[in-house]
Design goal:
alpha/beta, eleven-stranded mixed beta sheet, three-stranded antiparallel beta sheet, 10 helices, 16 strands
Length: 328
C-alpha cells in the first residue's frame, strides 16, 4: 500500500486545481428498491435493478466547478449511474435500505465538484462490466482492481471477451487471508493453503491469486487447493465461520474490517499483490474519465478525500495523485 496521505496546510486545502476480471454475463436482478445515501431519496424505475441509491450534491448546473467538464449527456441528465456490489464492507455495503461505505462517501464528494448526483445500483460483481457496456451504468465504483486484462477486455485465459474499460484510480489495496480467531490451522501465507478448502468472492483478484496457487501446489507436489467461490464476500465469511473452509481470501480493507468488527476472525500473513482500485469507465468515454480524474484530484487537494479514508479506516491505502490506468 502507499504511505499515509500527508496533512496539507490550510492554503493547500482550499486551492483548486486497481474481483479478477468482472466480465461475466449480466447478473440477474430483482425488482427495484429505492434507497438513499446521505439522505437523498431517489425512486428508480428500472425493473432489472436490485437496490439503488444516490450520492452527491443535488444538480448544481454550471455553478459546480467541474460541471462543464462532463459529457453533455450527463450534464443534461444530472446524474452519473454507478454499478456496485454492495457487500464489501467498509467499501460499499447495505445498512438497512441504504448503500453506505467509502465509495458512496467519495461519490458524494465527487458529486459536489461535478454538480451531479451519483446513483448507485446494486448487482453481482462479475457482471458489472458487461452491464456497464450495455448502457445500464455510466461507471463502476465497487472496489474493482485496475488490471491490464480488464483494461484490454481479456478473461483469465487471455481471451478477448469485451472492449475493456478505463480506470480512474483512487485507492491502493492488496489481498489478505482471513482465518478463524486463534488461527487453528496455523496459516501464515497462501502457500499454507495447499490441501485445504478456501473461500473467496467469484471474479475477484483474490480469486485469481488462489487459481494461481492451485498450480503452485501441483508444482510442489502438494495436495490440491480447493476453491469455494461465492457471489459475495459475506457468503465466504459465513462459510469460514461455519468451519467449511480454513480461510477466506479477500481485499485487505474488507478482511481487516471483518476482523475488527467481530471476535470471529483475524488477518494473517502479508498483503498480496497490492494494486489500485479504480472507477471503471467504458472505453471511448474519455470525457467522463477525465472529469472524474479532475474531481478526484480536487477532493485530494481540499482534504475531503483524506477525511473520508480516515472515517472508514483505510487511510493507509490513500493515493497522492489521481491517475488513469495505472494498474498492471
Amino acid at each position: 500500500m502507499s504511505a499515509r496521505i500527508p496533512r496539507r496546510p490550510a492554503a493547500a486545502r482550499s486551492r483548486r486545481s486497481p474481483r479478477a476480471f468482472g466480465l461475466g454475463g449480466a447478473p440477474g436482478m430483482a425488482a427495484p428498491v429505492a434507497v438513499a445515501v446521505a439522505g437523498a431519496l431517489l425512486l428508480t424505475g428500472c425493473g432489472d435493478q436490485t437496490d439503488s441509491a444516490s450520492g452527491g450534491a443535488d444538480t448544481q448546473g454550471n455553478k459546480a466547478p467541474l460541471f462543464d467538464e462532463l459529457p453533455k449527456k450527463i450534464q443534461k441528465a444530472g446524474v452519473i449511474k454507478v454499478g456496485t456490489d454492495a457487500a464489501y464492507k467498509p467499501m460499499e455495503y447495505k445498512k438497512g435500505q441504504d448503500i453506505v461505505g467509502l465509495d458512496p462517501d467519495l461519490a458524494k464528494a465527487l458529486g459536489k465538484q461535478l454538480g451531479v448526483r451519483f446513483e448507485f445500483t446494486n448487482g453481482v460483481f462479475d457482471g458489472l462490466i458487461t452491464s456497464m457496456q450495455t448502457g445500464r451504468f455510466d461507471i463502476i465504483m465497487s472496489s474493482m482492481t485496475d488490471t491490464k486484462d480488464r483494461q484490454e477486455g481479456l478473461d483469465d485465459q487471455g481471451k478477448k471477451v469485451g472492449k475493456g474499460v478505463d480506470f480512474v484510480d483512487y485507492l491502493t489495496a492488496g489481498s489478505s487471508i482471513l482465518v478463524k480467531k486463534g488461527n487453528p490451522e496455523k496459516v501464515k501465507s497462501v502457500g499454507d493453503l495447499c490441501g485445504e478448502k478456501v473461500a473467496t468472492q467469484r471474479g475477484t483478484t483474490s480469486h485469481e491469486i488462489l487459481k494461481k496457487q492451485i498450480d503452485e501446489c501441483k508444482k510442489d507436489r502438494e495436495r490440491p487447493l480447493t476453491i469455494e467461490a461465492f457471489d459475495n464476500d459475506d457468503e465466504a465469511r459465513v462459510r469460514l465461520k461455519a468451519g467449511g473452509v480454513v480461510a477466506d481470501v479477500s481485499d485487505f480493507p474488507v478482511a481487516a474490517n471483518a476482523a475488527k468488527s467481530t471476535d470471529d476472525f483475524e488477518v494473517v500473513g502479508e498483503q498480496m499483490e497490492s494494486a489500485p482500485y479504480g472507477m471503471a469507465v467504458a472505453k471511448g468515454n474519455d470525457e467522463l474519465s477525465e472529469a472524474l480524474k479532475q474531481a478526484l484530484q480536487e477532493i485530494i487537494e481540499n482534504g475531503t478525500y483524506e477525511k473520508a479514508l480516515q472515517k472508514w479506516g483505510v487511510e493507509d491505502g490513500g493515493v497522492f495523485k489521481a491517475k488513469i490506468n495505472s494498474g498492471t
